[in-house]
Amino acid sequence: MDDSSLTFMEATRQDSQCIDHAARIWAQAAAQRDRKPTPTDGSQALAGVQRRLALPEARLVMASKDEVPAGFTIASPHDGYLEIYYVAVAPDFWGQGIARVLLSEVDRHAASAGHVELRLWVIADNSRAIELYLSCGYQHTGQELIDETSGRTEFLLRKKLSREPG
Fold first, then answer.
1. CA distance 45 to 26
2. How far apart are CA 86 and CA 99, in angstroms?
3. Against a cut of 0.90, is the pTM above it?
4. DSSP 27-50
5. Can you tell me the distance from the alpha carbon of 136 to that of 132, in angstroms, rounded to the nearest whole number?
6. If the chain, 166 residues long, is cut into consecutive pieces of 10 residues, what is the mean pLDDT of each piece?
7. Quick one: 142 exposed, middle or buried, by C-beta within 10 A (0-12, 13-18, 19+)?
8. Where are the alpha helices (DSSP H) in 54-126?
């Protein structure tokens, strides 16, 4: 991917425009993934994005391509690891490597913050996301749960970060 036109912005909880972009991207990507009608806005996803941003030290990073919001991540630290809650790319940008670049950015941030592990939950039937995560070094933990809201099975994946000497 030519990521020279890809820019990153870390958003604050007060950045309502970026939060709205994130919610819209999530709503559209989830609808596409689940083969449902594409929503015109992100209103149904906004509460979830805001809930995760309310976590201590939560971090939203928006990726834009040619100044158009293309994808985002939200992650928050826990005891010794960083949990990724959202990795989403707008459907118009699928297949361009943006999710992989976003995950690399999370790796860099986690390592610089002293985290040794990343964790995320992924919907069990989301084979596209699972393939991406595995190719980026995540591994199955054997843990799974049924999401209370969706009723879908999710798997916990984790990635150990290497510590650079020095």
1. 7
2. 11
3. yes
4. HHHHHHHTT-PPPSSSHHHHHHHH
5. 6
6. 79 93 96 92 93 95 96 94 97 96 96 95 96 97 94 97 64
7. exposed
8. 98-112
